[in-house]
Design brief:
The chain has about 100 residues and is mainly α. It is built from 4 helices and 2 strands.
Amino acid sequence: MLYLIDASVFIFRAWFSVPVDVADRDGNPVNAVLGFARFLAELLEKESPRHIAVAFDESLEQGIATKSIRPTRPTGSLAPLELKRKFALGQQICAALG
């Protein structure tokens, strides 16, 4: 079975659904990366796909800078640039998983 994953959607969703205070040991927020990695791990564990392809939508990533942060985030919280960095980390996770 082949799975095609739109990673940008899952990273963007995790950005808003995983608590913003989830951070690495240096204090950098990793909420979006954690949510995306959790999704991938669950998919791999439950479905054991023979083939998987993960795509990142650059148009979504570029458009983030023009969108406002949802009101659920405190004023002055993570900037859209920080979310763009999460896409790069998501790509690194995919590369590490092969």
